[in-house]
Task: structure prediction
Amino acid sequence: MEGSRPATVDDLPRVVELSRLMYDELTPMKGGVLWSNREARAEPLDAAFADLLERDDALVVVGTVDDTVIGFGVVTLERLRNGETLAVISDLFVEPGARAVGVGEAMAGDLVAYCIAQGCTGIDALALPGHRAAKNFFEESGFTARAIVMHRALSRDHGEAG
Result:
């Protein structure tokens, strides 16, 4: 039976392992190199996820099948200038061989419920431009695009990173 629950300290080694799998999957995709250097969680991952577990403005969940952790998700809260709170799902990953059984939906449901309970006015989530499955997943979960980030890589021949 698939499910989702808040992560605990005991889950940290598995969450770190899954985070590395997510990194390996997303980095080669279109937009993935910049994502890996900007949005991806920085090492040391065990300390980064331990810090998230301690925060009042964040939730880390794990997705399970028969009590085996096969996915994880992270949402953090941001206070906007107008006083409202925006939630940001920074991580949502299920092992490739265990997708399409409802674990992602269970985790997303728990993350959304947390955001509602915290009085958030909206939730943002990032999908890389070449990751059609992620885009479809979020759209099926009620998300719509609110912004499209355009990027122009600059030639390294001129000493500028792309």
Observations:
- The mean pLDDT is 94.
- The longest helix spans residues 12-26.
- The two ends are 44 Å apart (CA to CA).
